[in-house]
Amino acid sequence: MQDFNLREMWNLLLENEIFRRLFILTIILLILLTVLSYIRKKVLKNTVDSDSKYKIVKAVKILQYILIASVILFVFSDKLGNVGVTMGLAGAGIAFALQSVIISIAGWLSIMTTGQIKVGQRVKIGEITGDIIDIGVMRTTLMEVGAWVNGDLYNGRITELSNSFVFNAPIQNYSADYPFLWDEITIPLRTESDFHLARKIFVEVTNEICGLYTAESKKTWEKMQGKFLIENASVDPSVTLRFDENWITFTIRFIVDYKKRRSTKDLLFTRILEEINKHDTLHVATAAMEIKNVV
């Protein structure tokens, strides 16, 4: 008796057009999602590169959204005309209520079509600096660098920004067309130091450590001159001097990969100290007072 009641109830449900359509839609979507999930796992299993994996996951998600929308439109295609007027009247209200959402989607479309930022790039958006790890329809996700951490190193904080930043916040890109930065260090020497020898050593050490970056940046800079109205700037390392009554100060200017500022400075300081220690005519200046020949 119970089986009969269940069968009768099921038949009644199937006679309902809306339920029948929803049932068909559910079955199709389950099959569709299962197939897409299987394909994604198979492809990712044979992919090693993390960048390729990210692109595959994003492509499958976009395909999934398109197919779901297509199935819904197909199943309810003959009903769309009846709801068209209602949707039109509700459209203005929905647009007003969801204006922030619409702006975010517009921002995502701008990012996708212009390519002004991409996953993997290091950017500063407003006051936040970090590497872009995901660009979604609504939000862009950054792995932050800096803040309470000295140097351009990850601090472990992940920040999500609404894509509306495209229209209302400055975007500074560290790695788009020119993935290099100019940086400087200063070396103070005592006034009695051999400054000619010091300059020679500093130039040699800087070329030794930063020479590869210089060569690569020259090629990139030449390409940029074909795209932007920029001067033919010098990317070669330079060493300049100034002095006062306290000490001589050398400023070393160099080109470096945007992700290697801290490690490059460490190499420069280490090699310069090694060279200074080899010469009795070179002395690092300090702010401490030194008293000599006291009888």
Shape: elongated
The name CATH uses for the topology of the largest domain is: Alpha-Beta Plaits
Estimated share of beta-strand residues: 15-25%
The order of strands across the largest sheet is: 4-3-2-1-5
Task: Name the structural class.
Answer: alpha+beta
How many H/I helical runs? Answer: 8
CATH architecture call of the largest domain: 2-Layer Sandwich
Would you write up a description of this structure?
The protein has helices spanning 2-15, 17-45, 50-75, 80-97, 99-114, 165-168, 195-225, 261-276, and strands spanning 122-125, 128-135, 139-145, 154-162, 171-173, 180-189, 238-243, 248-257. The protein is α+β, with helices and mostly antiparallel strands and 295 residues long. It folds into 3 domains: 2-97, no CATH class; 117-173, SH3 type barrels, CATH 2.30.30; 180-276, 2-Layer Sandwich (Alpha-Beta Plaits). The protein has a 5-stranded antiparallel beta sheet, with no helix packed on it. A 3-stranded antiparallel beta sheet has the order 6-8-7. Strand 3 (139-145) and strand 4 (154-162) form a beta hairpin. The longest helix is centred in the C-terminal third of the chain and has 31 residues, at 195-225.
